């Protein structure tokens, strides 16, 4: 695939972030008015500057840490997705879910997740932050548009990472079987891989690959890809 086609795809991926979290612009309801009797959602979105802490558990539950900021938090819920909207950075929402397959942040908010299901999607638009404590299996698909940051630990079969802007993927504790990385701008990424890494850069982005990966690089600009295995071979 030509480099221009690769980055055309990157632009399309970044554009899908807005579609994934568009419900965040819609009004929600206070927690007391939310109907929690239906099936538990498997996707979570956060719009705004607040914080959401997600834990795995058999029963679907939402708790809001009491504060003045908590009164402004609103919720949206359908068959698959829970949306948390509004509040300020002092607002903390704790969510318990049986399984989580998708996470999206729009704005400067922060989501902390103890575990994700295999084949999960993570989207960050703006300066938000997602922290994944432990993930396992499947393909982890990550899209970052803006200056957002992902922290991740665990082990997955594959990583699909797209960054448009100055975002970061800080995942040195994440081991992947293989990876495809697309960066347009000054974004950066670090992770561990012992398989094959395909990296496409446009701009001043930087990628560091720990482990024994074999790297294929396509780039325009001053961006760099440093594969630990190749560096050791050169030494």
In helices, the fraction of residues equals 10-25%
Give helix and strand order, one letter per element, not per position: HEEEEEEEEEEEEEEEEEEH
Low-confidence parts lasting 5 or more residues at pLDDT below 50? none
> Given the helix and strand composition, which structural class is it?
mainly beta
CATH architectural name: 3 Solenoid
CATH class: Mainly Beta
- Tell me about the largest β-sheet: 18 strands, mixed
Domains counted in the coordinates: how many? 1
Distance between the termini: 31 Å
Strand content: over 45%
Radius of gyration: 18 Å
Count of strand segments: 18
CATH topology: Pectate Lyase C-like
The number of helical elements comes to 2
**Mean pLDDT level:** 88
- Shape label: elongated
Structure notes:
- With 235 residues, the chain is mainly beta.
- It has a single domain (3-234), classed as Pectate Lyase C-like.
- Helix content is 11%, strand content 54%.
- The chain has helices at residues 3-20, 228-234, and strands spanning 43-47, 51-56, 61-64, 74-77, 81-85, 92-97, 102-106, 110-113, 121-126, 129-136, 139-146, 149-165, 168-185, 188-193, 196-203, 206-210, 214-220, 224-227.
- It has an 18-stranded mixed beta sheet that branches.
- It starts with a helix and ends with a helix.
- The model has no long low-confidence stretch (mean pLDDT 88).
Which helices and strands appear, and what pairs or packs with what?
Elements: H1 3-20, E1 43-47, E2 51-56, E3 61-64, E4 74-77, E5 81-85, E6 92-97, E7 102-106, E8 110-113, E9 121-126, E10 129-136, E11 139-146, E12 149-165, E13 168-185, E14 188-193, E15 196-203, E16 206-210, E17 214-220, E18 224-227, H2 228-234
Parallel strand pairs: 1-5, 1-7, 2-6, 2-8, 7-9, 8-10, 9-11, 10-12, 11-12, 12-13, 13-14, 13-15, 14-16, 15-17, 16-18
Antiparallel strand pairs: 3-6, 4-5
């Amino acid at each position: 695939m030509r480099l221009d086609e690769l980055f055309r795809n990157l632009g399309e991926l970044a554009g899908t972030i807005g579609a994934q979290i568009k419900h965040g612009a819609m009004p929600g309801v206070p927690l007391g008015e939310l109907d929690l009797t239906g099936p538990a959602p498997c996707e979570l979105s956060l719009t705004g500057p607040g914080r959401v802490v997600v834990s795995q558990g058999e029963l679907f539950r939402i708790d809001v840490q009491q504060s003045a900021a908590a009164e402004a938090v609103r919720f949206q819920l359908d068959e698959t997705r829970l949306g948390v909207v509004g509040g300020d950075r002092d607002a903390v929402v704790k969510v318990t879910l049986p399984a989580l397959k998708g996470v999206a942040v729009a704005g400067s908010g922060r989501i902390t997740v103890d575990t994700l299901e295999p084949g999960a999607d993570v989207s960050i638009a703006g300066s938000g932050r997602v922290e994944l404590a432990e993930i396992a299996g499947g393909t982890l698909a990550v899209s970052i548009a803006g200056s957002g940051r992902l922290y991740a630990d665990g082990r997955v079969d594959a990583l699909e990472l797209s960054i448009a802007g100055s975002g970061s993927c800080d995942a040195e504790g994440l081991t992947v079987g293989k990876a495809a990385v697309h960066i347009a701008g000054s974004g950066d990424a670090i992770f561990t891989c012992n398989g094959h890494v395909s990296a496409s850069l446009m701009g001043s982005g930087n990628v560091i690959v720990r482990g024994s990966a074999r790297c294929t690089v396509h780039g325009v600009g001053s961006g760099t890809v440093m594969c630990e295995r190749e560096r050791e071979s050169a030494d």
